[in-house]
Input
Amino acid sequence: MKVDEIMTKKLEMIDADALIYDAIERMIDKRIRSLLVRPKDENDVYGVITVRDIVFKVLGKNLDLNKTKVGEIMSKPLVCIDRGMDIEHAINLMTKFNITRVFICAGKEIVGIISLLDVMSAELIKKAREGHSA
Amino acid sequence: MLKNVFGGSTEQKVIDNMKKHMQVLYSASGCFKKGMEEWDKEQMYCVADLEREGDSIRREIISTIYEGAFLPFLRTNICRFVEIVDEAFDALKDAAFEFEHLGLELDKEIREDCIRIADINQQMCDMLMIAFNTLFNKGDLREKTLAIRIYEKKVDDLKFDLISKLRKKEVKDFWEGRILSDFMSYLTHISDVIEDASDYLHIINLSMR
Output
């Protein structure tokens, strides 16, 4: 199975200058666990901020949510793979870098994201379909 | 395991018709999806046609059961399962009907979400057939029903996102809003019904032990 068959195409973005509080609000409203951080200019690249970053790097260190900016704790560059790659390749990257999501890129653009839950769901559906074809 | 219980000729007739019933549901959901992909209201007439065909198969199944197919303790659960599959037909037909009357132009992003839901609905119909077949072979029903629940969760996520987008849309009159709201409700209800049907398969399976 290829990654573009299971990826989520909806990408929620935020600016690097936005406050952590804004990022938390967005994540709660959209029921998601990460946000893509827009590049500041043409020479910059995309970043990502996750719930994990917020808990460990801000809340865990008692930093002010209304003063800390997304750009200060985000991770970049993103771990990206091509949309035509197999899911196994995404799993290998997740294992290697100890991450729970991998971005799908087409050139410089980010076209999707797959998370651990997407991979698990896809594998379970694949197993349930074994020996059957629609 | 269930071959011994389902072995008679009237029982086999019911089983064949139940498979046919689900196959028609799969075709109807495929037809619905195609109509949405092409955003063609004319194409949606096939859904109503297939729903009528489904109705006729359902009546035949229920009649055969009441003629004496299956042991009495099984009949209720089998009838209920067939009725639930029929509810999926109804929801699909209602969604198609509302789609035909949709007056509001929808954004590309909202359309894509609706098509995605229609696609998942069709995959769920296929998985329901696969799950049903595990009653007659040594397949694992549990993993098939889990797959159906995963699909249902995906529809739920899309629904949540769609509703928040639609709340921001302006409608020009009561009926425009009402039709859009009903369309979304029926479209996202189909997966709930298929999940209910898969739960009933589990009950049928348990009652055979």
Observations:
- Residues 174-207 of chain B form the longest helix (34 residues).
- Chain B has a mean pLDDT of 91.
- Helices of chain B lie at 9-37, 45-66, 72-100, 108-133, 141-166, 174-207.
- Residues 28 and 49 of chain B are 9 Å apart (CA to CA).
